[in-house]
Protein backbone atom coordinates (compact mmCIF):
# COMPACT_ATOMS: atom_id res chain seq x y z
CA UNK A 1 0.00 0.00 0.00
CA UNK A 2 2.84 2.43 0.77
CA UNK A 3 5.08 1.59 -2.18
CA UNK A 4 3.97 4.70 -4.03
CA UNK A 5 6.24 6.91 -1.95
CA UNK A 6 9.88 6.91 -2.91
CA UNK A 7 12.15 8.14 -0.13
CA UNK A 8 14.11 10.05 -2.72
CA UNK A 9 11.02 12.13 -3.35
CA UNK A 10 12.03 14.45 -0.55
CA UNK A 11 14.79 15.74 -2.81
CA UNK A 12 13.80 18.96 -4.51
CA UNK A 13 13.01 18.52 -8.19
CA UNK A 14 13.56 21.05 -10.90
CA UNK A 15 9.84 21.36 -11.58
CA UNK A 16 9.06 24.39 -9.48
CA UNK A 17 10.01 28.05 -9.52
CA UNK A 18 11.04 29.53 -6.19
CA UNK A 19 12.00 27.47 -3.19
CA UNK A 20 10.30 24.60 -1.46
CA UNK A 21 10.46 25.16 2.27
CA UNK A 22 13.19 23.27 4.08
CA UNK A 23 12.20 20.86 6.82
CA UNK A 24 13.63 23.33 9.34
CA UNK A 25 11.51 26.21 8.04
CA UNK A 26 8.41 24.02 7.89
CA UNK A 27 8.86 22.71 11.43
CA UNK A 28 9.55 26.19 12.78
CA UNK A 29 6.28 27.34 11.18
CA UNK A 30 4.38 24.40 12.64
CA UNK A 31 5.70 25.06 16.16
CA UNK A 32 4.13 28.52 16.05
CA UNK A 33 0.66 26.96 16.05
CA UNK A 34 -1.35 25.08 18.59
CA UNK A 35 -2.22 21.55 17.56
CA UNK A 36 -4.34 22.04 14.46
CA UNK A 37 -7.85 20.62 14.47
CA UNK A 38 -10.84 21.41 12.34
CA UNK A 39 -13.13 20.27 9.55
CA UNK A 40 -13.70 20.67 5.84
CA UNK A 41 -16.29 23.42 5.80
CA UNK A 42 -19.12 24.52 3.56
CA UNK A 43 -22.29 26.16 4.91
CA UNK A 44 -25.30 23.90 5.34
CA UNK A 45 -27.22 25.95 2.78
CA UNK A 46 -24.65 25.52 -0.04
CA UNK A 47 -24.57 22.44 -2.27
CA UNK A 48 -21.15 23.27 -3.70
CA UNK A 49 -18.35 25.82 -3.91
CA UNK A 50 -20.22 28.14 -6.30
CA UNK A 51 -23.28 28.31 -4.09
CA UNK A 52 -21.01 29.20 -1.19
CA UNK A 53 -19.07 31.95 -3.00
CA UNK A 54 -21.34 33.53 -5.63
CA UNK A 55 -22.70 36.95 -4.68
CA UNK A 56 -26.37 35.94 -4.73
CA UNK A 57 -25.92 33.03 -2.33
CA UNK A 58 -22.92 34.02 -0.19
CA UNK A 59 -24.33 34.02 3.35
CA UNK A 60 -22.16 35.71 6.00
CA UNK A 61 -24.83 35.29 8.71
CA UNK A 62 -24.93 31.51 8.32
CA UNK A 63 -21.14 31.32 8.13
CA UNK A 64 -20.84 33.38 11.31
CA UNK A 65 -23.33 31.16 13.13
CA UNK A 66 -21.69 27.91 12.04
CA UNK A 67 -18.14 29.10 12.71
CA UNK A 68 -19.35 29.94 16.20
CA UNK A 69 -20.15 26.24 16.62
CA UNK A 70 -16.65 25.39 15.38
CA UNK A 71 -15.10 27.79 17.88
CA UNK A 72 -17.25 26.25 20.60
CA UNK A 73 -15.61 22.84 20.20
CA UNK A 74 -12.12 24.29 19.94
CA UNK A 75 -11.53 24.03 16.21
CA UNK A 76 -8.81 26.45 15.14
CA UNK A 77 -8.77 25.77 11.39
CA UNK A 78 -11.19 24.93 8.58
CA UNK A 79 -10.42 23.66 5.10
CA UNK A 80 -12.46 25.65 2.58
CA UNK A 81 -12.76 25.12 -1.18
CA UNK A 82 -12.72 28.06 -3.58
CA UNK A 83 -13.80 27.87 -7.24
CA UNK A 84 -12.27 29.52 -10.29
CA UNK A 85 -15.64 30.27 -11.91
CA UNK A 86 -16.68 32.39 -8.94
CA UNK A 87 -13.51 34.40 -9.55
CA UNK A 88 -13.99 34.58 -13.34
CA UNK A 89 -17.57 35.79 -12.91
CA UNK A 90 -16.57 38.63 -10.56
CA UNK A 91 -12.89 38.85 -9.53
CA UNK A 92 -13.22 41.89 -7.27
CA UNK A 93 -16.42 40.67 -5.63
CA UNK A 94 -14.99 37.21 -5.10
CA UNK A 95 -11.93 38.63 -3.35
CA UNK A 96 -14.17 40.86 -1.26
CA UNK A 97 -16.15 37.80 -0.15
CA UNK A 98 -12.96 35.91 0.71
CA UNK A 99 -12.00 38.88 2.88
CA UNK A 100 -15.44 38.80 4.53
CA UNK A 101 -15.02 35.11 5.25
CA UNK A 102 -11.59 35.72 6.75
CA UNK A 103 -12.98 38.50 8.96
CA UNK A 104 -15.64 36.12 10.29
CA UNK A 105 -13.12 33.30 10.77
CA UNK A 106 -10.70 35.58 12.59
CA UNK A 107 -13.50 36.69 14.91
CA UNK A 108 -13.87 33.02 15.90
CA UNK A 109 -10.09 32.48 16.21
CA UNK A 110 -10.08 30.17 13.18
CA UNK A 111 -7.26 30.23 10.62
CA UNK A 112 -8.54 28.55 7.45
CA UNK A 113 -6.69 26.89 4.62
CA UNK A 114 -8.04 27.41 1.14
CA UNK A 115 -8.22 24.83 -1.67
CA UNK A 116 -7.82 25.88 -5.30
CA UNK A 117 -8.21 23.00 -7.79
CA UNK A 118 -10.21 19.80 -7.36
CA UNK A 119 -10.58 16.56 -9.34
CA UNK A 120 -13.60 15.24 -7.41
CA UNK A 121 -17.24 14.78 -8.39
CA UNK A 122 -19.08 16.63 -11.19
CA UNK A 123 -16.90 17.46 -14.20
CA UNK A 124 -18.79 20.47 -15.56
CA UNK A 125 -19.63 23.60 -13.56
CA UNK A 126 -21.83 26.53 -14.51
CA UNK A 127 -22.23 29.87 -12.79
CA UNK A 128 -25.66 30.99 -11.66
CA UNK A 129 -28.29 29.06 -9.79
CA UNK A 130 -26.97 25.69 -8.65
CA UNK A 131 -28.94 22.41 -8.78
CA UNK A 132 -30.94 21.12 -5.86
CA UNK A 133 -29.47 18.13 -4.02
CA UNK A 134 -30.27 14.67 -5.31
CA UNK A 135 -32.21 13.00 -2.53
CA UNK A 136 -30.01 10.79 -0.38
CA UNK A 137 -26.95 11.11 -2.66
CA UNK A 138 -23.55 12.03 -1.19
CA UNK A 139 -22.15 15.31 -2.57
CA UNK A 140 -24.47 15.26 -5.57
CA UNK A 141 -23.67 18.85 -6.56
CA UNK A 142 -19.95 19.13 -5.76
CA UNK A 143 -17.84 20.50 -8.61
CA UNK A 144 -14.46 19.71 -10.05
CA UNK A 145 -12.27 22.70 -10.79
CA UNK A 146 -11.51 23.27 -13.62
CA UNK A 147 -13.36 20.07 -14.54
CA UNK A 148 -13.20 17.72 -17.49
CA UNK A 149 -12.28 18.27 -20.31
CA UNK A 150 -11.39 21.79 -19.15
CA UNK A 151 -8.29 20.57 -17.29
CA UNK A 152 -6.62 19.87 -20.66
CA UNK A 153 -7.74 23.10 -22.38
CA UNK A 154 -4.85 25.61 -22.79
CA UNK A 155 -7.28 28.55 -22.72
CA UNK A 156 -8.80 27.37 -19.43
CA UNK A 157 -5.34 26.77 -17.96
CA UNK A 158 -4.30 30.31 -18.89
CA UNK A 159 -7.36 31.61 -17.02
CA UNK A 160 -6.49 29.45 -14.01
CA UNK A 161 -3.00 30.94 -13.91
CA UNK A 162 -4.42 34.46 -13.67
CA UNK A 163 -6.83 33.34 -10.94
CA UNK A 164 -4.37 31.45 -8.76
CA UNK A 165 -1.68 34.12 -8.96
CA UNK A 166 -4.15 36.92 -8.23
CA UNK A 167 -5.60 35.22 -5.16
CA UNK A 168 -2.15 34.30 -3.84
CA UNK A 169 -0.79 37.81 -4.41
CA UNK A 170 -3.86 39.40 -2.86
CA UNK A 171 -3.90 37.22 0.27
CA UNK A 172 -0.36 35.81 0.34
CA UNK A 173 0.69 38.02 3.27
CA UNK A 174 -2.59 37.70 5.18
CA UNK A 175 -1.89 36.30 8.63
CA UNK A 176 -5.50 35.15 8.93
CA UNK A 177 -4.77 32.33 6.45
CA UNK A 178 -3.06 29.15 7.63
CA UNK A 179 -1.92 27.73 4.28
CA UNK A 180 -2.89 26.92 0.69
CA UNK A 181 -3.97 23.50 -0.58
CA UNK A 182 -3.27 23.86 -4.28
CA UNK A 183 -5.00 20.76 -5.68
CA UNK A 184 -7.47 18.41 -4.02
CA UNK A 185 -7.05 14.72 -4.91
CA UNK A 186 -5.18 15.24 -8.16
CA UNK A 187 -5.90 12.33 -10.48
CA UNK A 188 -9.30 11.44 -9.05
CA UNK A 189 -12.33 10.82 -11.31
CA UNK A 190 -10.14 8.35 -13.22
CA UNK A 191 -7.85 11.11 -14.50
CA UNK A 192 -4.80 9.54 -12.84
CA UNK A 193 -1.50 10.87 -14.20
CA UNK A 194 -3.21 13.03 -16.81
CA UNK A 195 -3.64 15.58 -13.97
CA UNK A 196 0.12 15.78 -13.38
CA UNK A 197 0.73 18.60 -15.91
CA UNK A 198 -1.86 20.85 -14.23
CA UNK A 199 -0.62 19.86 -10.78
CA UNK A 200 2.88 20.87 -11.85
CA UNK A 201 1.66 24.19 -13.19
CA UNK A 202 -0.28 25.19 -10.08
CA UNK A 203 2.82 24.67 -7.95
CA UNK A 204 4.82 26.76 -10.43
CA UNK A 205 2.25 29.56 -10.23
CA UNK A 206 2.34 29.43 -6.43
CA UNK A 207 6.12 29.70 -6.37
CA UNK A 208 5.97 32.74 -8.64
CA UNK A 209 3.35 34.37 -6.39
CA UNK A 210 5.49 33.42 -3.36
CA UNK A 211 2.96 33.64 -0.48
CA UNK A 212 4.15 33.81 3.11
CA UNK A 213 1.98 30.81 3.96
CA UNK A 214 3.04 27.26 3.08
CA UNK A 215 1.62 25.50 0.03
CA UNK A 216 0.78 21.82 -0.25
CA UNK A 217 -1.36 19.21 -1.98
CA UNK A 218 -2.65 16.07 -0.32
CA UNK A 219 -1.34 12.57 -0.93
CA UNK A 220 -4.47 10.44 -1.21
CA UNK A 221 -3.94 7.39 -3.48
CA UNK A 222 -0.83 5.30 -2.89
CA UNK A 223 -0.91 3.86 -6.41
CA UNK A 224 -0.21 7.27 -8.00
CA UNK A 225 3.59 7.05 -7.77
CA UNK A 226 4.56 9.98 -10.01
CA UNK A 227 1.91 12.28 -8.57
CA UNK A 228 2.87 11.34 -5.01
CA UNK A 229 6.56 11.87 -5.64
CA UNK A 230 5.85 15.29 -7.11
CA UNK A 231 3.60 16.27 -4.20
CA UNK A 232 6.08 15.18 -1.53
CA UNK A 233 8.94 16.91 -3.35
CA UNK A 234 7.13 20.21 -3.79
CA UNK A 235 4.93 20.66 -0.72
CA UNK A 236 6.15 22.91 2.09
CA UNK A 237 4.31 20.80 4.65
CA UNK A 238 2.93 17.32 4.00
CA UNK A 239 -0.82 16.89 3.80
CA UNK A 240 -2.69 13.67 3.16
CA UNK A 241 -6.10 11.98 3.24
CA UNK A 242 -6.89 8.78 5.08
CA UNK A 243 -10.28 7.22 5.76
CA UNK A 244 -8.94 3.92 7.10
CA UNK A 245 -9.23 2.52 10.65
CA UNK A 246 -6.79 3.81 13.22
CA UNK A 247 -4.14 1.08 13.00
CA UNK A 248 -3.78 1.46 9.24
CA UNK A 249 -3.89 5.22 9.54
CA UNK A 250 -1.09 5.16 12.12
CA UNK A 251 1.14 3.27 9.66
CA UNK A 252 0.61 6.01 7.09
CA UNK A 253 1.62 8.62 9.67
CA UNK A 254 4.78 6.67 10.46
CA UNK A 255 5.77 6.48 6.80
CA UNK A 256 5.07 10.14 6.07
CA UNK A 257 6.99 11.27 9.14
CA UNK A 258 10.12 9.89 7.49
CA UNK A 259 10.24 12.99 5.28
CA UNK A 260 10.91 15.17 8.32
CA UNK A 261 8.20 17.76 7.72
CA UNK A 262 5.01 18.56 9.65
CA UNK A 263 1.98 16.43 8.83
CA UNK A 264 -1.63 17.57 8.50
CA UNK A 265 -4.38 15.10 7.71
CA UNK A 266 -6.75 17.21 5.63
CA UNK A 267 -9.42 14.51 5.28
CA UNK A 268 -10.45 11.68 7.63
CA UNK A 269 -13.52 10.43 9.54
CA UNK A 270 -16.00 8.21 7.75
CA UNK A 271 -17.87 6.38 10.46
CA UNK A 272 -19.01 3.38 8.42
CA UNK A 273 -15.40 2.88 7.25
CA UNK A 274 -14.37 2.75 10.91
CA UNK A 275 -12.48 6.02 10.65
CA UNK A 276 -13.87 7.67 13.77
CA UNK A 277 -13.27 10.61 16.05
CA UNK A 278 -12.93 8.40 19.11
CA UNK A 279 -10.13 6.30 17.59
CA UNK A 280 -8.32 8.41 14.97
CA UNK A 281 -8.39 11.89 16.48
CA UNK A 282 -6.58 10.98 19.74
CA UNK A 283 -3.91 9.15 17.70
CA UNK A 284 -3.38 12.21 15.50
CA UNK A 285 -2.99 14.45 18.53
CA UNK A 286 -0.54 12.03 20.13
CA UNK A 287 1.49 12.01 16.91
CA UNK A 288 1.21 15.83 16.61
CA UNK A 289 -0.50 15.51 13.24
CA UNK A 290 -3.07 18.14 12.31
CA UNK A 291 -6.60 16.69 12.19
CA UNK A 292 -9.15 18.04 9.68
CA UNK A 293 -12.15 15.77 9.21
CA UNK A 294 -14.57 15.79 6.30
CA UNK A 295 -17.90 17.38 7.10
CA UNK A 296 -19.12 19.87 9.67
CA UNK A 297 -22.84 20.71 9.42
CA UNK A 298 -25.28 18.33 7.74
CA UNK A 299 -26.76 20.21 4.83
CA UNK A 300 -27.18 20.35 1.08
CA UNK A 301 -23.99 18.38 0.38
CA UNK A 302 -25.72 15.29 1.82
CA UNK A 303 -22.48 13.98 3.31
CA UNK A 304 -24.29 12.21 6.12
CA UNK A 305 -24.85 9.62 3.36
CA UNK A 306 -21.96 7.38 2.30
CA UNK A 307 -20.26 7.28 -1.07
CA UNK A 308 -21.42 3.68 -1.60
CA UNK A 309 -24.99 3.68 -0.33
CA UNK A 310 -27.43 6.31 -1.60
CA UNK A 311 -30.77 6.46 0.19
CA UNK A 312 -33.39 7.34 -2.45
CA UNK A 313 -36.09 7.93 0.15
CA UNK A 314 -33.95 10.59 1.85
CA UNK A 315 -34.29 9.05 5.28
CA UNK A 316 -31.57 9.62 7.83
CA UNK A 317 -29.00 6.81 7.70
CA UNK A 318 -28.68 4.59 10.73
CA UNK A 319 -25.14 5.89 11.10
CA UNK A 320 -23.98 9.15 9.55
CA UNK A 321 -21.00 8.90 7.20
CA UNK A 322 -19.62 12.42 7.83
CA UNK A 323 -20.63 15.63 9.67
CA UNK A 324 -20.71 16.70 13.31
CA UNK A 325 -23.73 18.98 13.73
CA UNK A 326 -27.33 19.07 12.61
CA UNK A 327 -28.60 22.22 10.90
CA UNK A 328 -29.84 23.61 14.22
CA UNK A 329 -26.42 23.24 15.82
CA UNK A 330 -27.19 20.21 17.96
CA UNK A 331 -24.50 17.51 17.79
CA UNK A 332 -25.13 14.29 15.89
CA UNK A 333 -23.37 12.51 18.77
CA UNK A 334 -22.76 14.39 21.97
CA UNK A 335 -19.94 12.05 23.01
CA UNK A 336 -18.02 12.95 19.86
CA UNK A 337 -18.36 16.66 20.52
CA UNK A 338 -17.29 16.12 24.14
CA UNK A 339 -14.18 14.27 22.94
CA UNK A 340 -13.30 16.96 20.39
CA UNK A 341 -13.64 19.64 23.06
CA UNK A 342 -11.52 17.62 25.47
CA UNK A 343 -8.74 17.06 22.90
CA UNK A 344 -8.82 20.78 22.11
CA UNK A 345 -8.57 21.73 25.78
CA UNK A 346 -12.08 23.24 26.00
CA UNK A 347 -13.73 22.77 29.36
CA UNK A 348 -17.44 22.02 29.56
TrEMBL record:
Signal peptide: none annotated. One of its GO terms (molecular function) is hydrolase activity, hydrolyzing O-glycosyl compounds. The lineage of its organism: Bacteria, Pseudomonadati, Bacteroidota, Sphingobacteriia, Sphingobacteriales. GO terms for biological process: carbohydrate metabolic process. Residues 167-285 form the Glycoside hydrolase family 2 catalytic domain. InterPro entries: GH (IPR017853), Glyco_hydro_2_cat (IPR006103). Transmembrane segments: none annotated. This is 1,4-beta-xylanase.
Amino acid sequence: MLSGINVMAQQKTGNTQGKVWSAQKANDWYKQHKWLSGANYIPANAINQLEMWQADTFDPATIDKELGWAQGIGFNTLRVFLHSLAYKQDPAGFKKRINQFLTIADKHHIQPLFVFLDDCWNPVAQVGKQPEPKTGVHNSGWLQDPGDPAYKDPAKIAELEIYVKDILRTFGHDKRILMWDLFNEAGNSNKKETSLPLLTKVFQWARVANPDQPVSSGVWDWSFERINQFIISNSDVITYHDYSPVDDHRKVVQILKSFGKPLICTEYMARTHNSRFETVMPMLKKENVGAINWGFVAGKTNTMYSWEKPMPDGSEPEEWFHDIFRKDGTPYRQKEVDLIRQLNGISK
